[in-house]
Amino acid sequence: MATIFTKIAKGEIPSYKVAENEDYYAFLDIAPMAEGHTLVIPKNVEDDYIFNLDADVYAGLWAFASKVAKAQKAALPCARVGVAVLGMEVPHTHIHLVPLRTEADMDFRKEKLKLSPERFAEIAKAISAEYEKL
């Protein structure tokens, strides 16, 4: 059975896509800790533990995430982009990329932002435009 993230990458469930290539997909988290909080996933592997990934998939995922993070930093007002790999809530490897102004922005326990569909779309478009420049 396909995970929710596989369904998102296949376009079966709508998402605010930030970037994509044939192997990886990046989209905005719908319960973000900060504006631009993005999830990066491998499209063709549903393993829920990042360290189970084949070495090439693992390396490719981080290379893709690095490019997405550079686009986030260019598109959004932040000091840097924080990274987390938890993998407890969805059984599909994913990297959280969170634009940070302070370390407190990366607290998974804090209340998540509630953004309008228009704001999500605007943020995704801005990051995507920067990604295309890289």
What does this structure look like?
With 134 residues, the protein is of the alpha+beta class. The protein has three helices and five strands, in the order H-E-E-E-H-E-E-H. It has helices at residues 4-9, 55-75, 117-133; strands at residues 17-20, 24-28, 38-42, 80-84, 95-100. Helix 2 (55-75) packs across helix 3.
Oligomer classification: single chain
Portion of residues within helices: 25-40%
Cα Rg: 14 Å
How many E-type strands? 5
What kind of sheet is the major sheet? Answer: 5 strands, antiparallel
**Can you count the helices?**
3
Q: Any chance you could write out the topology, listing elements then pairs?
A:
Blueprint: H1 4-9, E1 17-20, E2 24-28, E3 38-42, H2 55-75, E4 80-84, E5 95-100, H3 117-133
Antiparallel strand pairs: 1-2, 2-3, 3-5, 4-5
Helix pairs in contact: 2-3
Features:
single chain, 134 residues, alpha+beta, 5-stranded antiparallel β-sheet, 3 helices, 5 strands, 33% helix, 19% strand, globular
Short characterization:
With 134 residues, this protein is an alpha+beta fold.
